[in-house]
Amino acid sequence: MKKKISSLIIGGYILLSSAISFELNAQTSFNRDTIILAAREIIRETTYCALVSIDSTGQPQIRTMNPFPANDELITWFATSRTSRKVREIRSNPKVCVYYANHIAAKGYVSISGTAEVIDNKELLLKMKRDYWNGIPDWQNKFVLIKVVPKTLEVINYKHGLNNDPNTFKVPSIEFKY
Q: Could you write out the three-class secondary structure of 98-140?
């Protein structure tokens, strides 16, 4: 089925009308390579993402993060303060979700559910250093790394025809086995 959709952003809300054309794909299973390719494309084009962790009361906590480029296995890395809430939350409950999307471009989104680990390794931190850290006094002692290993990957990418199933609304997804 083919639908024409365009969006107009007014006061932070997206209003839909008819102008941009894309295919709604009723297919419920997608090729694994296509899903990964489509995910990498969105991840590569997204500067910031959201990291969701679970606090001590079981409440999800979300924050904007600046990830390092994802590797071939779609493992996500972040640097953060060793005294941050997210570090405490991950050490207590390593289940996390990383969400990539550029809502202005409206190309789709990527959601990675997985297991996070806090990595306190100064040698690795030095290898991953970002230039803007130079302005942070004693950053080598303030930062740790967070490594997120994916368990499931969900992708909507309109360019690649990866859309919700029109009947079940199921998102194209894959599971990783490490």
A: EEEECCCCCCEEEEEEEEEEEECCHHHHHHCCCHHHHHCCCHH
For residues 153 and 74, is the Cβ–Cβ distance under 8 A?
A: yes
Determine how many CB atoms are found less than 10 A away from the CB of residue 45. 11
d(CA 78, CA 118): 10
Residues 53, 105: Cα–Cα separation, whole Å? 26
Residues 6 or more apart in contact with residue 41 via CB below 8 angstroms: 157, 159, 160
Rounded to two decimals, what is the model's pTM?
0.81
Write out the DSSP string of 50-80.
EEEEE-TTS-EEEEEE-PPPP-TT--EEEEE
- Which phi-psi region, left, alpha or beta, contains residue 102 (left: φ > 0; alpha: ψ -120 to 50)? beta
Angle, alpha carbons 19-20-25 (nearest 5°): 125
- State the residue for tokens 């991953």: 128
In three-state secondary structure terms, 103 is coil
What percentage of the chain carries pLDDT values higher than 70?
Answer: 83
DSSP 25: P
Contact 65, 49 (CB under 8 A): yes
Measured over the CA atoms of residue 33, residue 38, residue 44 and residue 49, the dihedral's sign is negative
